[in-house]
Design goal:
- By secondary structure, the chain is of the alpha+beta class.
- The chain folds into three domains: 4-179, no CATH class; 182-280, Signal transduction histidine kinase, dimerisation/phosphotransfer (DHp) domain (Helix Hairpins, Orthogonal Bundle), CATH 1.10.287.130; 288-438, Heat Shock Protein 90 (2-Layer Sandwich).
- Helices cover 55% and strands 16% of the residues.
- It is built from 15 helices and eleven strands.
- The strands form three sheets. Strands 6-8-9-11-10 form a five-stranded mixed β-sheet, with helices on one face.
- A hairpin with a 6-residue loop joins β1 and β2.
- α1 crosses α7 and α8 (181-240) packs antiparallel against α10.
- The protein is elongated, with a radius of gyration of 46 Å.
- The model is unreliable at 57-81 and 395-399 (pLDDT under 50).
């Protein structure tokens, strides 16, 4: 598992980065192709519009080609003989012709600006309202200029004024972006799904790896927890076979008591494991009744008198709660306090242990605080302290006994009583466990 996990992570990471890279290349190619197609369509549409403008010129000369015409001035004669798009079309008419050509080339709804100008000395011009605003910016806009010349062999060949039709489509990039927006959205969506799947897979692998380590740790701890009492029982049995012990009643009772205590200890460990299995199956059953929390706490304190004396420790009480009656299971509630007190003793310093138990009321709840001045916990330990099988090690795996089930059991029972528990700690300064339970109605 240790070797396979990094290989799997690297392979998935390479696949993910490769997929993202090729999607980026594909989207870039699609954008370039769309921009090229847009420019071509704009050019073809502008060319069509220019041809339409030239086709629709006045048929004045064609209708009067057999008549002798008299002109009042030379300027009027030149205007008639050299027909001008600027003179013969309004701005709205030119815009309508261009729009029709754009729609024909599948450019519906695309905004454009235009201008028609001649190449004469007077420099006449007709343009849309915002033509000059976009004319100077050729980087982000598509500009197309088409000469307005009559078709070869037409009536106006070589006599029409030299004019140009200029069409500008602003912000071509945003137009292309709108066209490929769905491709981008879908691509990003599926990429996010793949990334999410990658992290879920990685998290599952890490969890599996952690569970494997916890399993090994649990087996080592269980082996140690059962090996020690079994060894003690074996020695006691051998001692009972000794003739001197058989004849000595006091020694016989002493070794018999040892066997009973070690047997009781093993039964307690087995019961702890079985209870954990029941909690996993959600088969926990509480025999609730009205109980006094202060009474249960004092009972639990009596249970740790001997280990507390070995540590030369002491307990202080500060029962501020005026109401301590809760609706709970007496045995399980006693186990909650026992576990918290045992942990305070277990993870204490060599000498000078001080445990302080405080109770108070907050609205309709009973708050129980159990504080100690022990070794404390790191931030990482504090985050995982209620996890099943997790144990805060102090170096050697067996220097603190247990399966890592105690606090997980405490949290499960507290929540079964519709309460909550949290821990506060600083490394080297001790820990505080705060239990909040609803008061009996």
């Amino acid at each position: 598992m240790k070797r396979v996990f990094p290989v799997i992570t690297i392979l998935i990471s390479l696949s993910l980065f490769g997929l993202i890279y090729f999607q980026f290349i594909w989207l870039t190619s699609a954008r370039n192709a769309k921009e090229k197609q847009l420019r071509e369509n704009i050019f073809l549409a502008t060319t069509d519009a220019a041809e339409k403008l030239m086709e629709n010129k006045s048929d004045f000369l064609l209708l009067n080609k057999n008549k002798e015409l008299n002109f009042s001035s030379e300027k009027l004669k030149m205007d008639i003989l050299r027909p001008s798009v600027i003179q013969r079309y309004t701005k709205e008419e030119i815009s309508a012709v261009i729009r029709k050509s754009f729609d024909k080339r599948l450019l519906e709804g695309i905004h454009f600006e235009f201008a028609v100008s001649d190449n004469s000395i007077t420099g006449e011009q007709i343009q849309s309202d915002q033509f000059f605003k976009y004319f100077i910016d050729s980087t982000h806009n598509t500009n197309v200029a088409i000469p307005l010349t009559p078709a070869a062999g037409s009536t106006y060949e070589n006599i029409a004024k030299e004019e140009f039709l200029v069409v500008i489509v602003p912000h071509q990039s945003s137009i292309v972006f709108k066209e490929i927006l769905w491709f981008i959205v879908v691509s990003v969506l599926f990429t996010m799904i793949i990334i999410t799947a990658f992290f879920i897979t990685t998290k599952a692998l890490l969890r599996q790896k952690k569970l494997s380590e916890i399993k090994s740790d649990f087996i080592n701890n269980m082996t140690h927890e059962f090996k020690t009492p079994l060894a003690t029982i074996s020695l006691a049995v051998d001692a009972l076979k000794n003739e001197k012990v058989v004849t000595d009643k006091d020694k016989h009772e002493y070794f018999t008591d040892i066997i009973k205590e070690e047997n009781k200890r093993m039964n307690k460990q087995v019961e702890t494991i079985l209870q954990a299995a029941l909690f996993d199956k959600k088969e926990i059953q509480l025999n609730n009744k009205l109980i006094s929390a202060h009474t249960i706490i004092r009972t639990a304190v009596n249970n740790i008198t001997l280990p507390l004396e070995e540590k030369k420790g002491m307990i202080e009480f500060d029962f501020k709660a005026t109401s301590d009656t809760i609706d709970g299971d007496e045995l399980h509630f006693l186990n909650i306090i026992n576990n918290l007190l045992e942990n305070a003793v277990k993870y204490s310093k060599e000498n000078g242990l001080l445990i302080k138990i405080t109770t108070e009321n907050s609205r309709n709840r009973l708050i129980i605080k159990i504080s100690d001045n022990g070794i404390g916990m790191s931030r990482e330990t504090l985050k995982r302290i209620f996890e099943k099988f997790y144990r805060a090690h102090t170096g050697n795996i067996h220097n603190v006994k247990g399966f890592g089930l105690g606090l997980n059991y405490v949290k499960t029972i507290v929540e079964a009583h519709k309460g909550s528990i949290k821990a506060e700690s600083s490394l080297g300064l001790g820990s505080t466990f705060i239990v909040s339970l609803p008061l009996a109605q």
